[in-house]
């Protein structure tokens, strides 16, 4: 989570969280918003009485606090750009150009609120999804030593003693690509996608669906359809060998990024981050399952760990971040020991 957050803030917002005053606000924003998104909101079901219930449960107040923290975070990030004119080529610079009318949007005038709305989308949609995909892939590998051995052998063979691992290397890692596809398939990060609202009365599968109905696409169930998938509960990356099925929204059997107009607009960045992180971890470390369901990462030269740091996170963006499914420690320095503890529920 911290890694994906840092990358997205660097690439999207042109800011480095490490040691910056934005780092603390960022933590509050991310954890707070995930908690709020994952909470039950009575207003979603009972418009009037729900507002009263949400005030009594404290959800309303929490939303207000998170919203203020988020607004401050975006204000500070934008200010940082306005003070440093040499920051270019990131999302904030582009949006500020659009606000000033330097980049054409036709008749549409972008305001500061639009800019903040877009930044909010990028931040919330990018950090958790990427972070949890990596964590799930690690979990499946730890639980499947056969696959772990095979993918690690492939990565070490292809990377050998290269200092820099680049996106070109990904193309040569066929089995890793299958492992990631299988991770998306068995544990999709958005199991119900983003809800759609029906714009007119329609019929789907023989059912009448009236205008304005919300539709949730159950990707989790689609990925487990025994008429389409063999062994739908087992982690077998080889199922994608010689298969044309891809995750880009055109094969409806596999929809980790959704499909249609609202498909994830950042598949490229998400996939690059997931691949490069896993390649680095598989290449540089041996992972070992210890007693008591702990997962320990060790350096290949057998250096032992020294420090532990804990972060709580949920496993999908449809669940509350209160769920302490994962406790993880990842000191992200090239030559410092890495130790990772995971509690499997
Ligand atoms: C492995 C990583 C990722 C996964 C699995 C993922 C998955 C998804 C899914 C399932 C949706 C909903 C699509 C639908 O309902 O049809 C979505 C939407 C979205 N994603 Fe991603 N995503 C990932 C990475 C990212 C990254 C890195 C960013 C931005 C930096 C991003 C930005 C967005 C945005 C802005 C939307 C909303 C699009 C809209 O509302 O039209 N995603 N993503």
Automatic annotation (TrEMBL):
Please indicate if the UniProt record lists Acetylation as a keyword: no
UniProt KW Nucleotidyltransferase keyword: no
- Output the Pfam families linked to this UniProt entry: p450 (PF00067)
The record's section on InterPro entries has:
Cyt_P450, Cyt_P450_E_grp-I, Cyt_P450_sf, Cytochrome_P450_71
Q: Can you say where in the cell this protein is located?
A: Membrane
Chain segments annotated as transmembrane: none
Determine the domain of life of the protein's source. Answer: Eukaryota
Query: What family does this belong to?
Result: Belongs to the cytochrome P450 family.
Q: What is this protein called?
A: Cytochrome P450 71B14-like
Can you name the source organism? Camelina sativa (False flax)
Task: Cite the source lineage.
Answer: Eukaryota, Viridiplantae, Streptophyta, Embryophyta, Tracheophyta
Q: Which gene encodes it?
A: LOC104741977
